[in-house]
From TrEMBL:
Signal peptide: none annotated. GO terms for molecular function: kinase activity. Gene3D superfamilies: 1.10.287.130, Backbone structure of the membrane domain of e. Coli histidine kinase receptor kdpd, Histidine kinase-like ATPase, C-terminal domain, HUPs, P-loop containing nucleotide triphosphate hydrolases. This is histidine kinase. It is a multi-pass membrane protein. It is an enzyme of class 2 (transferase). CDD domains: HATPase, HisKA. Keywords: ATP-binding, Kinase, Membrane, Nucleotide-binding, Phosphoprotein, Transferase, Transmembrane, Transmembrane helix, Two-component regulatory system. It is found in: Cell membrane; Membrane. SUPFAM superfamilies: Adenine nucleotide alpha hydrolases-like, ATPase domain of HSP90 chaperone/DNA topoisomerase II/histidine kinase, Homodimeric domain of signal transducing histidine kinase. PANTHER family: SENSOR PROTEIN KDPD.
Length: 848
């Protein structure tokens, strides 16, 4: 049986109609004959939603009792036993009541999918785990119930349920979402127009990114290379000159005009070194483009316009931004320039913007000064000078007779010019043509191919030798400068790569994409196998249609060790490029190893933490739990002994010891269980409005009389808390304070209101805690100072902080003026945020 398919209705905020849309889809499927059941749908008392449930089969819910209250949850076993084709499961991010089969509802959904059942579910954008901080900064509300992004991303289909903020607020005002007594608070808090607009933008952008992932996968699977202008992607061509900053800022402004626009800055390093730039300037421009939300790319290509267009088409760009050429007017005789060539060859699917800047027309400097090799234009000029130059010179000298010596010097000058321009071969041609013309026109006997005077033969030989020597020197220099330029380009690429990897900025897929871009390939993949007889597997891939079966299927494959290879498709690379590619391949293997080592380290860290907890728990059990057990057993044995006749006072004392030991055991076991619940994330607070006068006095039961002073004003606002968790937190804090406070100094428990929160301060006059240890005392199984064994297992403060944070509050430690320690428990005042979002245990039940 295959895995079921997941369809999710995603909403920007509660009340946009996700559940209604899901039920409408269910009715359509039932009409088509699909076996569809309602596994769990909450209508929240909304008549229209409740009506949509009619006519759909509903699986009975499972009843669970928690803290004296009965709750209902989805019965996973019943749904699996029913085994429908499609199950409707509302509120994907919901936290199940303790005692349920799984802690989270999305885990229930995973079980249904694994059983081959298709699931249709709902979730709000604020419940995505990665957006928690963003949503909190917008709304001021921290979502306690979240679902991992990967769970939603793996969905086979995501449908956005959208509604304008004005329409949603009208629905709220008409009572279609909340009960009338909650509408005003919700409209003035969470459902403000600004909040809803920001959440709507988050939802639209998140879905757009998801659609873009689908599009990239489709283009890769179908080998689509033509540009599809589905969103604005702007490529900025950088030369490394100071004008690059202007181009990047202009491209960023262009991207802002379209929703979801992207900026990709690319620097193309030519192997001939002609476009080599200052590394410092490139680093500045890279930082600028990343600060503006774009990405920086480094590509090698001898034909800069072709490489730039290939890169733009490879990333599905829609626009290219280039600067107006820095060349002077006379330099255009060597060609139209990069901007004009890109504009000419871009085609109808790419818009090219030429941006003016302060450096335009100021010149680019002489290529020779940069150590360049001989370019194609220079070689052409060298041949023209070498072949036509002697003929033109001969025509001139036929009208002006300067003598054989001067004529030879002039022909030698032409040969040297041909050597400087075109290298060895044009110089040899010039020497050959020049020697023939000298022999025919200027060496006696004239107009014959013979030489009468032997001295003239020596002169012509010297002429040819000097020309060849100069040409050889020029050609050697050109080759050496070409090698130096190429090595410089390679060092720039490797330095850039090493910097990214050392900073941890490059993952395996990003590195492979960098390889593909750098060498202008269609795809790159890292393949590995356990041994020579095992099949190859793909550890990472980038680009369109990579070779994932065998390395020899690729155009270029570079082995990495005995059982790993980097495979590239697109074209055959020259041998000189393989040196840099080998470095990339070795670095890819290092990145893969580092990723696996990090995963192993994370697992080892988890195991170590578990071992630490188990060790501490064993230590607690070995002493702190056995001590009261030993006392209880001794007292019981004494009472049951027939050898001693105990008086009533003695019996009462022994019974009191048994009771104290049992209370101590109950307290210790309770803390252990609470810590276990916090560690596993199963603490589910049931938030409601509570008066501190109702809870704090109950937390003081069990502490010695006259050891605590209570100052809780009656005028304090009510707080949004779970009464049971608050009582346990305060009780643990007071017990800890009494333990360390001197017998003659009572512990003060005071409460006060500050802005939208209420603070409960537990003040003792004990020895206090230094600043460096104030956070450590909240860790599990920690006793501060020389606290003796038997004083507890060191869980009281850890449990208190865990419960406080579960309720949306905080717990910190401060110094008491005059000596001692003050525990500050901060709670949210009632009405300080949207009522429906105050219930982490069941937010969707009140606001969806």
């Amino acid at each position: 049986m295959g895995r079921g398919k997941l369809r999710i209705y995603l909403g920007a905020a509660p009340g946009v109609g996700k559940t209604y849309a899901m039920l409408s889809e269910a009715h359509r499927r039932v009409e088509r004959g699909t076996d569809c059941v309602v596994a769990f749908v909450e209508h929240h008392g909304r008549p229209r939603t409740e009506v949509m449930l009619h006519g759909l089969e509903q699986v009975a819910r499972k009843e669970l009792e928690y803290r004296g209250t009965t709750f209902t949850e989805m019965d996973v076993d019943a749904v699996l036993a029913r085994s429908p084709q499609v199950a409707l499961v509302d509120e994907l991010a919901h936290t199940n009541i303790p005692g349920s089969r799984n802690a989270k509802r999305w885990q229930d959904v995973e079980e249904l999918l694994a059983a081959g059942i298709d699931v249709v579910s709902t979730v709000n954008i604020q419940h995505l785990e990665s957006l928690g901080d963003v949503v909190e900064s917008i709304t001021g509300v921290r979502q306690r119930e979240t679902v991992p992004d990967e769970v939603v991303r793996r969905a086979d289909q995501i449908e956005l349920v959208d509604m304008s903020p004005q329409a949603l607020r009208r629905r709220m005002a008409h009572g279609n979402i909340y009960q009338p007594d909650k509408v005003d608070a919700a409209l003035s808090n969470y459902f403000r127009p600004g909040n809803l607009t920001a959440l709507r933008e988050l939802a639209l952008l998140w879905v757009a990114d998801r659609v873009d992932e689908y599009l990239k996968q489709y283009r890769s699977d179908h080998r689509v290379s033509k540009i599809w202008g589905s969103r604005e992607r702007i490529v900025v061509g950088l030369t490394g000159g100071p004008e690059g900053r202007t181009l990047i800022r202009r491209a960023a402004r262009l991207a802002e005009k379209g929703a979801g626009g992207e900026v990709l800055a690319v620097y193309i390093a030519s192997s001939d070194g002609l476009t080599a730039a200052s590394p410092k300037e490139l680093a500045v421009q890279r930082t600028l483009v990343e600060d503006l939300g774009g990405t920086f790319h480094h590509v090698v290509g001898d034909d800069i316009p072709a490489a730039l267009l290939a890169f733009a088409r490879g990333v599905n760009a829609t626009q290219i931004v280039l600067g107006v050429s820095r060349r002077k007017s006379w330099q255009y005789v060597f060609g139209p320039g990069v901007g004009a060539t890109v504009a000419r060859d871009s085609g109808p699917d790419l818009d090219v913007h030429l941006i003016t800047h302060d450096e335009a027309g100021k010149g680019r400097g002489l290529p020779v000064g940069r150590g360049a090799r001989l370019g194609r234009s220079r070689i052409i000029w060298g041949w023209l000078v070498g072949v036509l130059g002697p003929a033109v010179l001969a025509a001139v000298l036929n009208t002006v007779h300067l003598g054989l010596a001067n004529d030879m010097l002039l022909f030698l000058a032409v040969t040297v010019a041909a050597a400087l321009l075109g290298g060895l071969l044009p110089a040899l041609a010039s020497a050959a043509v020049g020697s023939l013309l000298l022999n025919y026109f200027y060496t006696p006997p004239l107009h014959r191919w013979t030489i009468a005077d032997p001295k003239n033969i020596v002169a012509i030989v010297i002429f040819v030798g000097v020309g060849v020597s100069v040409a050889s020197v020029v050609d050697l220099a050109a080759r050496r400068t070409h090698q130096a330029a190429r090595l410089r380009a390679e060092s720039e690429i490797l330095s850039f790569l090493a910097g990214n990897v050392l900073r941890g900025e490059t993952g395996l897929e990003e590195l492979l994409e960098r390889v593909r871009e750098t060498f202008g390939m269609e795809s790159a993949a890292l393949l590995e196998r356990a041994s020579e007889h095992d099949p190859w597997t793909c550890a990472g891939r980038a680009g369109l249609g990579p070779a994932v079966e065998r390395p020899d299927e690729a155009d270029v494959d570079v082995p990495v060790g005995d059982h790993m290879a980097l495979a590239l498709t697109g074209r055959v690379l020259p041998a000189e490029d393989r040196r840099v590619l080998a470095a990339f391949a070795a670095q890819a293997a290092v990145v893969l190893d580092r990723r696996r080592l990090q995963e192993e380290a994370d697992r080892a860290r988890t195991l170590a933490e578990g071992n630490r907890i188990r060790t501490a728990l064993l230590a607690a059990v070995s002493h702190d739990l056995r001590t009261p057990l030993a006392g209880i057993k001794a007292s019981v044995s004494s009472l049951r002994s027939d050898d001693v006749a105990w008086s009533e006072e003695d019996q009462a004392e022994l019974l009191e010891g048994i009771e104290e030991g049992a209370d101590r055991l109950d307290h210790l076991v309770g803390n252990l269980l609470d810590m276990s619940r916090l560690q596993t994330g199963t603490v589910t607070p049931l938030i409601r409005e509570v008066d501190l006068d109702e809870v704090v006095p109950m937390a003081l039961v069990g502490v010695p009389e006259d050891s605590v002073e209570l100052e809780v004003p009656e005028t304090l606002p009510m707080v949004d808390v779970d009464p049971g968790l608050l009582e346990r937190s305060v009780a643990n804090l007071v017990e800890n304070a009494v333990k360390y406070s001197p017998p003659d100094r009572a512990v003060l428990v005071a409460a006060s209101a500050i802005a939208d929160r209420v603070e409960v301060r537990i003040v003792d006059r004990g020895p206090g805690v230094p600043d460096e240890a104030k956070e450590r005392i909240f860790e599990p199984f920690q006793r501060y100072g020389d606290a003796p064994r038997g004083a507890g297992v060191g869980l009281g403060l850890a449990v208190a902080r865990g419960f406080a944070e579960a309720m949306g509050g905080t717990l910190t430690a401060e110094d008491t003026p005059g000596g001692g320690l003050t525990m500050v428990l901060t709670l949210r005042a009632a009405g300080s945020r949207a009522q429906g979002l105050l219930h982490p245990a069941e937010p969707e039940r009140q606001v969806t």
